[in-house]
Request: fold
Amino acid sequence: MEEKNIDIKKINEKINKESAIIDLLSMELSKVIVGQKEMVDRLLVALLSDGHILLEGVPGLAKTLAISTLAKTIDANFSRLQFTPDLLPADILGTQIYSPKKESFSIKKGPIFSNFILADEINRAPAKVQSALLEAMQERQITIGDQSFKLEEPFLVMATQNPVEQEGTYPLPEAQVDRFMLKVMIDYPKKEEEKLIMRHNLAKEFPQAKNILKTESIISAREVVKEVYMDEKIEQYILDIIFATRNPEKNGLEKIKDFISFGGSPRASINLAKASKAFAFIKRRGYVIPEDVRAMCYDVLRHRIGLTYEAEAENITTEDIITELLNTVEIP
Reply:
């Protein structure tokens, strides 16, 4: 037992030292992005745990600005894809172009060949385009014709959905939404924050973030995040939460049994564990505590719990269900 404690102390010191880059990144991002602390934190969690993020919020809440600024601070390539109903998979992935002179085909790579991809209004494009992007997210490779290309690391997709209008949109199927590690809901800024945003935009020069890191720093930070210590009790806590979404009645949650049509998949357990480790790293801690799991629970489970008609009739949201789960499942 004593040896384990020494190890944790050692891990803690290492994490504390390595996580200094998070402070640098946060400082640089806050020069440009006012407020939205939660969105920035979740973006860093996704980046450090090699996951993708789905953002839902009304237009004008700095979603594009956040990821383009992050790309600038890390000296990475950034592509913005504006999804429209007439978009084709080739517009994203690339295509083969025939050269009559050479009498052969050459590959023209698409905008997906970047480190950071902003898929703006992903629910505006048809299923073919959505599945092309989601396949790239999962497999980390693209096939054009008979050639396959590995995507460069780090590779992060931030997709946005506008909840305001549903006309002319193609909602993402539940099974495909599962490929996003986190789903984050963004709200309007506070009055004081909006005053600052207004000033930034009226100033002679809009604040710019500096390039402070290389992509290699992020790749090595990811390796360090894997070393964050997670006790067996925390693993059990994560499993208890996920299993309670599948069988609420077996976990003392009979009252929400009729509101859940399906619970979290094994991806939910994996992503909750990864996100909790990354969150502990951001908090400069070498071990995961129950609060890390609880902090990440909403973002990891929000899009992984299916609601029944009864839930919708009674205006019960996935947030209400997750709150009920966290209040009932025993904390280690």
User: Anything to note?
Assistant: The radius of gyration is 21 Å. The domain at 229-328 is CATH 1.10.8.80 (Helicase, Ruva Protein; domain 3).
